[in-house]
UniProtKB/TrEMBL annotation:
Protein name: SusC/RagA family TonB-linked outer membrane protein
Residues annotated as transmembrane: none
Any Pfam family: TonB_dep_Rec_b-barrel
Organism for this UniProt entry: Flavobacterium hydrophilum
Domain of life: Bacteria
């Protein structure tokens, strides 16, 4: 009997051991650094696909392959932890360390990475989950309001990207936009990246951070890092949304009843040709029927094994505009592979992304917008027979719906970016990196205006360009006109650098030495125009059907003779970081850049920088205090350059056609110089001094940073007017000007409440910048210290300008008539140059300085709430202290022409006898300050719902819920980029309000 018992015991023990060998049940709880449970934390058995997520109480239970399995525990915002089972313990308590402390983050800098706690420069990092939510395809809008000092403005037009200006405008010659680096590839078109593929964005602000990119870094550098696969985790994910957009605001124009009452009261009469008894809301008529639809679908796969990882994604984005025909669509395919070899000492990387975009633009967009507000409501859209109503006799009176219906304006782009990387770990702490990249952008553009457009009188059909451009006449030929072009841009880049990372006791040294070579071929393609088509349905697809030779004087346009360019940039760079005891930090960089776009005598430039920091929290005297968990003071100075805004021909002598002259009874073609050479043309240089402090309070519950900077651009490139005796052309592109930006930036983050069930975190960023044109002269410049500019040319406003480039004043300085109310006769009067009042002011002479378009304060304020499985984020954005010149309002404030053009409702008390009421003046300069509830998102995470679905989250987002402002225009978010900021000139594509439903699933 005893032997039988022993045999049975051995049998069951062996069975138990065999069962344990085959299957082990593990359970436990995952806690944060405050001992609070972490719901939806991920637990993965390393080397397998087995994984689970924790429940609401942070608890989990899973089966692993053996009692010595290795678990990888991860949760967003915490450092991953690896746990090896010891063969006996199956009930675990695992505590994750928070990675949310901003000073502990790893940030991407030029040609490397670094710990934020040891940075000597000004860098702001934004994680994917912190980016703006919504129907957004543009990286600028993703960052809007998120980074202190980053001024971003956008309209409702889905075909246009946002304007991005960092720490104020640095130049007069280009867009002032930052330089983008994506996964280490410099100068990549940002449209190749899907928002769903972004892991982090690092904004490099001061020159010490950006100088390593030399001649392209004057406007700041934005580093985008995309998501990568994991060796330890295989994952399939879907992110998608559908949304609806509607116009959030429109101008309050008079309807037919109001306008008829106004004209009757003031003895004005509509012409019979215009007054058909209609009551048309033209702003509504150019809108798409129903709400504009948006959708996005992103499917990604990632994973890997012992020797490598991969990620692949496919994104489809569609976004209708609220205006008729306006539409945008994009498809992005991306593949990223990393392969390790030779005991992980060599890593190869391959990244390929292809983005195909189609932009369907509103034909003659700005003219359509102008006509939609000025067209008389008493005119109908269509005649009784269904044809479009038109009055071809009235000057500049066009049916905006007909303009859209009978025109086509489309652009398709294909952007391919591929780069191959290699990283080799060498002895003695050295690492070698090689990056070979190729980018190919193909653009195809077509416009067609059918025979209907030929009915418009080309002697009064003006376009309505964005400021600072001035209106010009458009001729649509005979029986339709078409334009077609196709261009290709290619960029080839080779960069290699050697890194030495060595720790010698309390000394840490990290040095980088590298070389960069880039060759760009731009505008390789063709363009052609044609007219006189036999039918209207050929569009721009078959120019051969045209018969332009029968149209007297018509000349085919074969495009810009300077479209084709080949440029080369070569750079050598070095950076040295020194760290003593993690307390005292020093960084120095230098880059030597050469560019073919500059004068033969100044092809090369040097861009040095230096930065230092003191980590006070590491000092012995800080050990026993309980207030500061982190405290670092830093300072930097550096010089960067600007190579954007000019091309391969900027410094070259160019001859071309100069029209014709009469000789011996004939008109003879003239040929001569039309651009002067400047062999001394060199880089613009921007020097930035920056001091800052980074801090954390009460064990990281409050974090923040404060930066003060002084940025000055010298040798500013501008097209100066010169004495024709010295330069026959009369103008020359030369260095000469100086621009200054000084400001302060503040960023704060806090978690006021954190309990087992509820968390509230908030972050606030503020920025203030003062811009000034310090110098606007050149030794050859004969134009004085100022240039009047921005001439919208509204009705009766010929020669009137709105802004001025002026030494001692900011970019966007308004310079106009000073409104002084009405005199006893009810006529608008203005302050003359000598201070007297006049009703006949002289354009230019009686102008006064009248505020600036530059904002005094930028604000972004985000709040995130988490209650059990619910999450709510609310984000406000504000701009304060800027002025807007509402030229739109001025042009709609002409009561004397109310019988031919519509006017605003609040112009009802104006008298038609006051012919001065509409003049561009301070009367139409308004406060552009606003605060907007930019985004509100409510989500619910179901967690794991089945064996194959690890996480499901649904959410609803509302964009632009409301805006608080005194501005009387459509929206105060008027263009802040370029050289004519803050001008609202009959061209504002309506801002929209978006309602969106989204789904995130992880398999």
């Amino acid at each position: 009997m005893e032997k039988l018992k022993l045999l049975l015991l051995a049998f069951f023990l062996g069975l138990s051991i065999n069962s344990w060998a085959q299957k082990t049940e593990v359970s436990g709880v995952i806690l944060d650094d405050k001992n609070l449970p972490l719901p939806a934390a991920n637990i993965l058995e390393k080397g397998t696909t087995r994984s689970v997520v924790t429940d609401f109480d942070g608890k989990f239970k899973m089966s692993v392959s053996n009692p010595n399995a290795v678990l990888v525990v991860s949760f967003l915002g915490f450092t991953d932890q690896t746990v090896k089972l010891d063969g006996t313990k199956t009930n675990l308590t695992i505590k994750l360390a928070s990675a949310m402390n901003a000073l502990e983050q790893v940030v991407v800098v030029g040609y490397g990475k670094g710990s934020r706690k040891n940075l000597t420069t000004s860098v702001t990092s934004i994680k994917a989950e912190e980016l703006n939510k919504g129907a957004i395809s543009d990286v600028g809008q993703l960052l809007q309001g998120k980074v202190s000092g980053l001024n971003i403005s956008s309209s409702g037009d889905p075909t246009r990207t946002a304007s991005v200006v960092l720490r104020g405008a640095s130049t007069l010659n280009s867009s002032q936009g930052p330089f983008y680096v994506i996964d280490g590839v410099p100068g990549v078109d940002i449209s190749v990246i899907s928002p769903d593929d972004i892991a982090t964005i690092d904004v490099l602000k001061d020159a010490a951070a950006t100088a390593i990119y030399g001649n392209r870094a004057a406007n700041g550098v934005i580093m985008v890092t995309t998501k990568k696969g994991s060796k330890d985790r295989t994952q399939i994910a879907y992110n998608g949304y559908v949304g609806w957009e509607e116009v959030s605001n429109q101008l309050d124009m008079m309807n037919a009843t109001q306008l008829r009452a106004f004209t009757t009261k003031n003895n004005l009469n509509f012409t019979p040709e215009n007054d058909k008894g209609a009551n048309t809301n033209w702003q509504k008529e150019i809108l798409r029927a129903g709400k504009a639809k948006s959708s996005s679908h992103n499917l990604s796969m990632s994973g890997g094994g012992k020797n490598g990882s991969y990620t692949a994604s496919l994104t489809s984005l569609n976004k209708e505009g609220v205006l008729l025909k306006s539409d945008f669509s994009r498809v992005i395919a991306r593949l990223s592979v990393e392969q390790f070899a030779f005991d992980d000492k060599v890593k190869f990387g391959l990244n390929v992304t292809n983005s195909n975009s189609k932009y369907v633009n509103v034909p003659q967009r700005n003219t359509v917008l102008l006509q939609s507000i000025s067209h008389l409501p008493v005119s109908p859209v269509r005649n009784e027979d269904g044809t479009f109503f038109e009055n071809f006799v009235s000057t500049g009176y066009f049916n905006p719906v007909a303009l859209i219906e009978h025109g086509t304006d489309e652009t398709e782009t294909n952007n391919l970016v591929g780069n191959l990387t290699a990283e080799v770990k060498l002895p003695f702490g050295f690492t070698y990196n090689l990056n070979i990249a190729h980018q190919k952008l193909t653009t195809s553009h077509g416009e067609f205006y059918d025979s209907y457009y030929s009915k418009y009188n080309s002697a009064n059909f003006y376009n309505n360009p964005d400021p600072p451009l001035t209106k010009s006449l458009i001729n649509f030929g005979v029986n339709g006109s078409a334009l077609r072009n196709s261009y290709e841009n290619t960029n080839n880049i080779i960069e290699s650098f050697l890194t030495w990372d060595k720790t010698l006791g309390v000394h840490k040294i990290k040095a980088v030495l590298g070389y960069s070579w880039q060759e760009n071929t731009l505008g390789d393609g063709f363009q052609a125009t044609a007219t006189n088509f036999p039918v209207d349905n050929v569009g721009y697809n078959n120019l051969a059907l045209s018969n332009y030779t029968s149209v007297n004087g018509y000349v085919v346009n074969f495009g810009d003779s300077r479209a084709y360019q080949k440029t080369r940039l070569i750079g050598e760079f070095a950076r040295l970081n020194y760290n003593y005891q993690d307390k005292y930090l020093l960084q120095g960089t230098i880059r030597r850049d050469g560019g073919s776009v500059f004068g033969a005598n100044n092809r090369w430039g040097y861009f040095p920088s230096v930065g230092a920091a003191w980590r006070v929290d590491k000092e012995n005297f800080m050990k026993n205090q309980q207030i500061f968990s982190d405290l670092k003071f830093r300072g930097s100075y550096g010089v960067t350059g600007n190579s954007s805004g000019f091309n391969a021909y900027t410094a070259q002598f160019i001859s071309g056609s100069l029209g014709t002259f009469y000789y011996n009874g004939q008109q003879i073609g003239a040929y001569g110089p039309n651009q002067a050479a400047n062999p001394d043309l060199k880089w613009e240089k921007t020097a930035t001094a920056n001091i800052g402090v980074d801090f954390g309070l009460f064990n990281g519950k409050i974090t923040g940073s404060v930066d003060l900077y002084d940025k000055k651009t010298t040798d500013m490139i501008f097209n100066y007017a010169v004495n024709p005796v010295l330069v026959p052309v009369g103008t020359i592109v030369a260095n000469g000007g100086t621009m200054s930006n000084k400001g302060i930036e503040v960023s704060l983050g806090a978690t006021p409440v954190k309990t087992a069930n509820f968390t509230w975190s908030t972050n606030l960023n503020l920025a203030s910048n003062k811009n000034e044109i310090v110098k606007l002269t050149n030794p050859f410049f004969i134009g004085g210290d100022s240039i009047r500019r921005v001439q919208p040319d509204g009705g009766g406003q010929t020669g009137s300008t709105l802004q001025i480039f002026k030494e001692g004043k900011p970019l966007g300085q308004f310079f106009t008539l000073k409104y002084a109310g009405k005199n006893a006769a009810g006529v608008s009067q203005y302050v003359a140059k000598d201070g007297s009042l006049t009703t006949t002011p002289a354009i230019g002479t009686d102008y006064h300085y009248a505020g600036s378009a530059q904002p005094k304060v930028l604000l972004g304020w985000g709040n995130n709430f988490q209650y059990k499985k619910f999450d709510l984020s609310i984000f406000f954005r504000g701009v304060f202290g800027n002025k807007i010149f509402n030229a739109t309002r001025a042009d709609l404030f002409r009561p004397s022409t109310a019988m031919t053009n519509n006017i605003l409702v609040d112009a009802a008390n104006e008298s038609p006898t006051d012919l001065n009421s509409y003049k561009y003046s301070t009367r139409f300069i308004e406060d552009g300050s606003y605060i907007r509830l930019d985004n509100m998102t409510l989500g619910y995470n179901f967690g794991k719902v089945s064996k194959f679905i690890q996480s499901v989250r649904v959410y609803q987002t509302i964009n632009n819920l409301f805006v608080i402002t005194k501005y009387s225009g459509i929206d105060p978010e008027v263009e802040q980029g370029g050289t004519a900021p803050g001008v609202d000139s009959n061209n504002f594509y309506p801002k929209t309000r978006t309602f969106m439903f989204g789904l995130n699933v992880i398999f």
